[in-house]
């Protein structure tokens, strides 16, 4: 059973006529977007707000009308993936590098649903590398700070070049498992000059749809 598909498609059922929907990024929400696209072909009227160029291309291909975040007052619901989610529905996101736009859209949303396969559920956040989005200028200085703190930073690469986000930034993946207090870590990262955003999404998610074997479960 494809757990990403079952979770992703299930979440599309939460979309109602007239809603403005934040469209996340990744291989699980891909199925949500495809399913929403099918419903749009059958008459559902919604507006999508994409969180990445890749999602905009996918959604447009599915016939979903899109709006820019700047032209959107309120987002009724955002559906997105996650890399880790703990029992309190805190998570790590940004494995696909879209964390900055994802967080902006999530923060503008009345409700956030995450779609995951069962492997994403963890007791404690931090085994998955935490993405930190940094400005390209002086990125090595930030790496130094992370190294001194024992975060074993790695600059994310693609085709032999630094991976560039849709916002034109770099991603440094850090090992945050030993940090313990993720709220404190998030605040520390928020205050670091040159850090644009990080993949700790704390208190953002309202409902997780989990694909687990043959079934789908919900946690809120
Ligand atoms: C992209 C993300 C994704 O939602 C996250 O990486 C999960 O992706 P997938 O559903 O492909 O496992 O945060 O920035």
TrEMBL record:
Stated name of the protein: Ribose-5-phosphate isomerase A
Listed SUPFAM superfamilies: D-ribose-5-phosphate isomerase (RpiA), lid domain (SSF75445), NagB/RpiA/CoA transferase-like (SSF100950)
UniProt GO MF annotations: ribose-5-phosphate isomerase activity
NCBIfam families reported for this sequence: PRK00702.1, rpiA
Biological process annotations from GO: pentose-phosphate shunt, non-oxidative branch
InterPro entries reported in the protein's UniProt record: NagB/RpiA_transferase-like, Ribose-5P_isomerase, Ribose5P_isomerase_typA_subgr, Ribose5P_isomerase_type_A
Role, per record: Catalyzes the reversible conversion of ribose-5-phosphate to ribulose 5-phosphate.
Pathway: Carbohydrate degradation; pentose phosphate pathway; D-ribose 5-phosphate from D-ribulose 5-phosphate (non-oxidative stage): step 1/1
Catalytic reaction equation(s): aldehydo-D-ribose 5-phosphate = D-ribulose 5-phosphate
Annotated binding of substrate, by residue: 25-28, 80-83, 93-96, 120
Residues annotated as catalytic: 102
Enzyme Commission number, as recorded: 5.3.1.6
Top enzyme category: isomerase
Annotated keywords: Isomerase
Gene3D superfamilies registered for this protein in UniProt: 3.30.70.260, 3.40.50.1360
UniProt subunit comment: Homodimer.
Higher taxonomy: Bacteria, Bacillati, Bacillota, Bacilli, Bacillales
Assigned protein family: Belongs to the ribose 5-phosphate isomerase family.
Designated gene of the protein: rpiA_1
